Predict the structure.
Amino acid sequence: MITLKGKIGLGRPKSEEINVLQELSEEFDVEPIIINRGPFFEKAASKNVTALVDKTSYLNCKVRNLGNRTVSWIRHRDLHLLTVGRMTYTSDQRFTSIHNPQTEEWTLQIRYPQRRDSGVYECQVGTTPPIGIPMHLSVVEPITTLLGGPEMYINKGSTMNLTCIVKHSPEPPPTISWTHNSEEINYDSPRGGVSVITEKGDITVSYLLVQKARNSDSGKYTCSPSNANPKTLIVHVLNGEHPAAMQHGGQLRLEYPLSACFLSVFVALVGP
């Protein structure tokens, strides 16, 4: 008598039980046992996908034991049927179904995604009743910020610290380049005293440090992340010709004299 105790029992995943039964069939030279559990989803795929605006996005769904059933993609927001099998069932031709028979994957491709495309999408198999697995798509647009812009005033001889911040990027930008007057900054130039420190994470920050600022350091500085929009500010290196400016740690910010503020308010009230 064949004893299956310990090999098959409560708590074991179905896939393991099927493997055990197949091994026993081979070991004791009996007809293989065929168990058809119907279609089921491979749970390894991520249920949360983040995509960049205008960058093609993919939602992956792996279905085992599909048989003659069909796989559909449905958008939950409006219960709109997007694809059935490899056919597109929507007038929005940005949506395409891609099938890889070798991996049993069904992929919903979304070209030129926009922020309005964010939401829940369901990979559904046409069983009775249907079974499905929902996935959440977040379409984000990375935001680049240069602190102190659009114009920054600093004292000659002080340290220039330009801080570039990249937010809402699904992954840290692989590279962040800095340019001065449209020319890439050379950190090994004879000028010396120029360096960059970049801290990558959910929010990536890049610091451009210029020691002992000179008049020639004035101009347009641009921070260009490889996966986000560039940002520019204008730097003015001053020789103390703006006595009305307020100094904050070597960085200057111009302010109007108090009398000028009263004059502008008076003109606005009186009118032409």
Remarks:
- Residues 1-11, 243-272 have pLDDT under 50 and may be disordered.
- The first strand starts at residue 40 and ends at 41.
- The chain has two helices and 21 strands.
- Residues 14-27 form the longest helix (14 residues).
